Amino acid sequence: MSGTGEALLTLRGVKTYYGNVIALKGVDVDVNEGEIVALIGANGAGKSTLMMTVFGDPRAQEGEIRFAGRDITALPTHEIAKLRIAQSPEGRRIFSRMTVMENLQIGATVGDAADFESDLERVFALFPRLRDRRNQRGGTLSGGEQQMLAIGRALMSRPRLMLLDEPSLGLAPLLVQQIFAAIRALNERDKLTVFLVEQNAYHALKLAHRGYVMVNGEITLAGSGRELLQRPEIRAAYLEGGAS
Amino acid sequence: MSERAPRVPRESGRFNPREVLAAAKEAAVAALVALGLFVLLIGVRTDQGPTGALVIRTRFGALAAIVAAVFVGRLVLALARHDARLSIGRLAPAALRAALSGLGIYAAAAFLAFALIVPIVFYTDRYLLDLAILIVTYTMLGFGLNIVVGLAGLLDLGYVAFYAVGAYSYALIAQHFGLSFWICLPLAGILAAFAGLILGFPVLRLRGDYLAIVTLGFGEIIRLILLNWQDLTGGPNGISEIARPSFFGLPFNSTAHGFAATFGLTYSPTHRIVFLYYIILALALITNWVTLRLRRLPIGRAWEALREDEIACRALGINTTTTKLTAFAMGAMFGGFAGAFFATRQGFISPESFTFGESALVLTIVVLGGRGSQLGVAVAATVMLGGFEFFREFEQYRMLVFGAAMVAIVIYRPRGLVATRTPSVSLGARTDIPAAIAGGARTETPA
Questions:
Q1: Do residues B241 and B304 both lie within one domain?
Q2: A12 touches chain B (CB under 8 A)
Q3: B161-174: per-residue pLDDT in tens?
Q4: Are residues B244 and B171 in the same domain?
Q5: Of A168, B135, B191, B261, which has fewest CB within 10 angstroms of its CB?
C-alpha cells in the first residue's frame, strides 16, 4: 500500500516569512516515492504557504528543501517546475480566457514535445469532460471542471511529484469523490507521488498513506492516514459533526 | 452602467406608471446635474461693455434649453431601457458583433484588398495617399503595441520611445555611415528592441498602475534625451535631409538614373508616395503575420498565459523574466521599424514628433480595436485617424465628436470594436470566444 520508501521531497526546518510575520516555523515533511501524503489543518495554518514554499514563491528563508536528492531551496520557481514537480495551486489559477486545450498546452511547457499526444490522451481518459470542453474557454467551465483542468494541466508535464492545493474546495460532494478517485487512480496506476493540502480532513486522510497536521505554521502531528483518522484530537478538531 | 441582464421583450409597448415615474425621477436628477454643470458655463457670460469694462450677461434661455434637452434625453433613455423594442442602441451592437464574428475573416480580406488598391484608386489624390500612409503607420504601431498590451497584458504608456529610437537610429546611421534604408531598417529594429530590453529589466517586477507609470516615464526620458543631447541628435532642431528610400537602388527623382526614367515613365512625385505606401503596408502585414505566428508558438501562448496569471505561469515552468523581456523587445522592434519608416517618409525628425500624445494615440487604437485583435486595431486606426481628418474642417467640434465616440465605445463596446479572441489552437470546429467572455475576468463559474 505504502510507497517504495525512497524519499522524493524532504523539508527540513523550513521557515517562511511574509514580511516580518512568520508563516512557517520550522517545518519537517517527507514525501516518499509513490506515496500520497496529506497535509491537513485549519484556515490560515500555513498549508498553502508550505506548498508555495516548495516552489520558492515565497522563498524559504531558513531550512532546506530537497527534491530527488537535489537541494532546490534557492532554485527559481520555473526551474523547480522543470524538475517535474507539478502543482494544482490554490484557487486553481487556470487561464480563464484561454481554451481548455491552450491551458493544457501551457501545462506541457516543461514536458517533452514528443509526449504531448499521449499525455493529452491520459488527461482526457482521466477526465472525459475535458475532452468535450476542449475548445471552451477555461473561465466558462464549472468549478469541478476547472479543478479537473487544473489537475490535468499539472499532469501535462509528466510530473514525478504532484502538489495539490485544496482540490475539493467549493465542489459538490459527488465531484469531490470523482476528483479523489482520479487522484487515487493516478497514484495506483501511474505511480504518481502526490502531496495534498486539504481542509476536507476526512476524505484526505482516507485517501492518503500518510498525513501531517499543521497548526499555526507548525507540524503538530504525523502518522499514517488511518492512524490520524482514529486520533481523538483530530476527530474533535477537524471531523466534528461527523464526516460526509 | 446597468447589468446586461437578458431582457424579455414585452408584447405591448405601454409603460406602467411606476416605470414612467422612476424614469422621470432619473431624468430630473440628470437635469439637476446639467443645471449645476452649465449654470456658469452657459448661463453666464462676460462681454466687453461699451466702456471697455467687462459686463456680465445672462443667457438663461440657452441654459434652460440645455437642461430641457438633458431631461428629455435621459427620459427617453430611461424608458428605452425598460422596453426591449426601444433599445436600438443596445440591439445594434449585438447584431454588429454577430455580423463581425461571422464575417470576420471576410471583413479582414476585404479590408486587406482595399488596402492593396488604395494607391491605384486614389492615385491622383495626394492628400488621401498621405492619410493612407499615416493610417497604415499607426496600424503597424498598433500591431506592435498589441504584442505588449494585448497579448502579454503589460500596459505600456511609453511606446513612442521605441518609435523614436527607430526613427533616430535610421536617421543617424543613414547620415553618418551613408547606409541605405534597407540596411538601416533592421538595424533600427534591433536598436529599438534593445531599448525594449532596457525598459524591460527595471519593470520586471512591476504590474498594472506601477508599470504604466514607469513606462510613461521611460517615454519622456527618451524624448528628453533626444531634446538635450544636442551634439548627437541636433536637439530641438532635429535631423533634416534624411535619406529617402530607393527602389532597388533607383532613386525617385527626375534624373536620368531615376525610377521614372529607367522605366520610361514621366516623372511624378507621386511614385515615391505610392512606393512608401507599399513599404509601410508590407511592414504592417509582416508585423501582423509575425504576431499571428507567434501566438501559435509556445512563446505567444506564454505571453497570453502571463497576462492571465503570472504565478500559475511560474509554477508551470514558464520563465516569466524572459517571457516579459521578449514581449517588450518584440513590441519595441516593430515600433522601431515603424520609426525608421517615419523618418524616411518625413525626411525630417525632431523630438516634437515623439510626445506622450503619440503613445496615447497608439494605445487608444489598441484598446478601441480590442486588445489582442489584429483586425480591430486596423479598423480602429482607420476610424481614429480618418475621423481626425474628416473632422478637421469642423475644428471646433472635433474633440467633442471624438469624446462622444469614446463614451459610446465605452458604453456599447467595452471590450473594443472587435472583441472576440480566436483561440490559437482548436480541435474540430473553430469557434470564436464571445466578447462578453473573452474580455471578462475569471469570475463566472456556472455550476
A1: yes
A2: no
A3: 999 999 999 999 99
A4: yes
A5: B261
Complex confidence, ipTM = 0.86
CB-based contact (8 Å) between A28 and chain B?
no
Q: Domain of B84?
A: 17-91
- Measured distance CA(A156)–CA(A150) in Å, rounded: 10
B318 contact residues in A (CB cutoff 8 A):
78, 106, 109
- Looking at the structure, tell me whether residues B68 and B136 fall in a common domain: no
Of A82, A101, A140, which is closest to B317 when you measure between CB atoms?
A: A82
Contacts of A146 in chain B (CB under 8 A): 445
Mind telling me how many Å the CA of A159 is from chain B's nearest CA?
Answer: 11
Q: What stretches of A199-244 adopt beta strand conformation (E)?
A: 210-215, 218-224
Are residues B54 and B157 located together in one domain of the fold?
Answer: no
Q: Give first-to-last CA distance, chain A, whole Å.
A: 24
pLDDT tens per residue across span B367-376: 888 777 888 8
Residue B428 lies in a domain: no
| Residue B305: closest C-alpha in chain A | A95
Q: Is residue B442 part of a domain?
A: no
The reply to whether B87 and B112 lie within a common domain is no
Cβ burial of A33 (10 Å; 0-12, 13-18, 19+) is: middle
B432 is a domain residue: no
Residues B164 and B83 both lie in one domain: no
Q: How many CA atoms lie within 13 A of B299 on its CB side?
A: 17
Do B134 and B180 lie in one domain? The reply is yes
The sign of the torsion formed by the CA atoms of B187, B192, B193, B194 equals positive
Number of compact structural domains in chain B: 2
pLDDT tens, position by position, B56-71: 888 888 889 989 999 9
